[in-house]
Amino acid sequence: MATIRGIHHVTAICDTAGQNIAFYADLLGLRLVKRTVNFDDPDSYHLYYGDEIGRPGTLVTFFAWPDAPQGRLGSGQVESIAFAVPSDSLGYWADRLERRGIDAEELERFDDRLLRFHGPDALRLELVAADAEDGPDPWSEGPVDSEDAIRGLYGVTLGVEGYERTTDLLETMGYDPVGEERDRFRYETNGDAGSIIDVRCRPDLRCGRIGVGSVHHVAFRTEDGASQKEWREALTERGLDVTPVLDRTYFESIYFREPGDVLFEIATDGPGFTVDEPEASLGEELQLPEWLEPRRAEIERDLPMIFYR
Question: From which residue to which does any coiled coil extend (predicted)?
Fold first, then answer.
């Protein structure tokens, strides 16, 4: 079976696109690598942030749904998204967040030092001190100096009612158990970014509700369409309901709900974000897939203006 190479991206839901860009691009220093629409709901933006070219393992994306209700954190959800930063940069980040009026709590977990805080719409985020040489290089032209900049995704925390079937699936996907602290079980794969999955057993929580400030899904990496097909067959044989392969222009995707009810995706590494605009101007203009281009005038008319800064 082809190897799952860590997390490809994490997709969450935000309120307004402008506030989202101001936080993730201007404050956290990620590059806005694609400004497009939700292919299943083209009246709303889909924003992608990552490193210089949006490499898998660096990506966090957002559906901008200003009319959606606030999400409710509970079981069957991604509880938090963690980014990797250089091991000596937590002081820099604590000061940077404080200057923006954001309270950050420093703590330790599995011998990791990290800052925990909330982004816009109350989305739970973490910055984890990691070795500077690990993971992709940061975007060199961003607002944060390279020695302190985010190195990509570190991992996610899943909150589920019972953890055994979820962790069994993770082991099938190539994740190994590497630690346990109270209700938290850590799994790791050999990817170079986004290799950590923490599973929390949360039978005390009611079911979560998807909405603004919640994570919609977490996507895992596979090399190409052939390996993705292998995974689709293997997951179907496990009794999971898996979508057909969907063309997302920048990658191909399959989706399924893991046993704890978190929505998972397996996405191909390519073709990447330079298929429809040059690297130098990534994220500057609205990009639409070929099948939506005939509707461009209508879509641009209905999309809200983006205001930020």
Answer: none
